[in-house]
C-alpha cells in the first residue's frame, strides 16, 4: 500500500507560480511511475504531467507544456509539480497518483494509476 499526500496548493494571481509536492509512504516509491492530474469544476479529471520511476522520461499535456515541470526525488519519496506562468484555466483540484506496475514507462490515463492522494486546490485569479 502507498499513501500519497499532496501539499502546496493555494490562491495565486495569474502569472504567478506554485510548487506542489506529493509525499509518498512506503519503501518502493522509486519503482512507481507518478502522475499529476487536474480536475476543474464540472470537468473530468485529466492528466497534467507524468514521470517515469527513474525520472528520465516525462510527459506534459499540451496546455501546460513549457510552463509546468514534473520532477521527483526518490531519496525523499516525493514528487513535485512546479507551475509557472499560471493562468485562470489552471484552476482546479490537483491530484498526484502512483502506478505500481513496476514497468518502466509513462502512463497517461487515470485508469492506469493505483494510488491517489486526496488532492490540493489551486485557484488562479485573473
Write the layout of secondary structure elements.
Layout: E1 4-7, E2 10-13, E3 18-24, E4 33-39, E5 45-51, E6 58-60, E7 68-73, E8 78-83, E9 92-99, E10 115-116, E11 120-125
Parallel strand pairs: 2-11
Antiparallel strand pairs: 1-3, 3-8, 4-5, 4-9, 5-6, 7-8, 9-10, 9-11
Could you explain how this protein is built, in words?
The chain is an all-beta fold and 126 residues long. Strands 2, 4, 5, 6, 9, 10 and 11 form a 7-stranded mixed sheet that branches. The chain has a 4-stranded antiparallel sheet with strand order 1-3-8-7, with no helix packed on it. It is built from no helices and 11 strands. The protein has strands spanning 4-7, 10-13, 18-24, 33-39, 45-51, 58-60, 68-73, 78-83, 92-99, 115-116, 120-125.
